[in-house]
Amino acid sequence: PLALTAIGRLATAHVPVNLVTGLPIGHYRQHKEEFAKMLTGKHTITIISRDGSREEKSININKVLVVPQPFGSLFDTMLTDEGKLKDKRFLQEKIGVIDVGFRTCDYTVSDKMRYSERGSRTTEAGIARGFNIIASKLREKSGVNVELYRLYEAVEKGSIKIRGQEFDLKSLIEQVFKQLATTIANEIDRLWADDWDMDAMIVTGGGGKVLEPFLKSQLTGEILPAPDPEDDPR
Description:
Elements: H1 2-10, E1 17-23, H2 25-39, E2 41-48, E3 54-68, H3 69-78, H4 89-92, E4 94-100, E5 105-111, E6 114-123, H5 127-142, H6 152-157, E7 159-162, E8 165-168, H7 170-191, E9 200-204, H8 206-216, E10 223-224
Parallel strand pairs: 1-3, 4-9, 9-10
Antiparallel strand pairs: 2-3, 4-5, 5-6, 7-8
């Protein structure tokens, strides 16, 4: 349903669509063919606008390419909005991708744009692990159970107001994210122990933007700058 909703907003009715989508590393090998099969073919959907008006649409998906999700982050870095290559080094080098999500962290290796299954894994080291610790500390101090999704603004600001009382989070955030970055760095050392010929790494994902400053000091090698999600017009 989520895929068809997105396609329905972009595709023209009855015009065949070629689709590129992704799955987390932990689901990629087992479900990629099944997922592609589910999406391929004709789908009739109803789009309901904010004013309540309904539009029936027929979508014809011609081909589906399922890639490991971190490769989507890599494509976003290496391609312009028009799909043109920014830098040939991505085609010539071995790049490690660290894709930090909310619940999970995906690792993969692009060896001259070839997917390395041996160097790929999904772990539970997502940004939510850090948010859980912050929420737990706030509950101890204020007695209020702050939902994790409500911590985004507080983490960015460095403080949160609960029942009129301001709580400074700066030192706690630094401590928690430094610890999470250490966990990720240790996972990378184990997973990519044999990939000593890695040319560079890139930290991506919603949690990557937050953790990158803490990860940089703990990773050995060149770290490529990732695109800022806020600058993406999509």
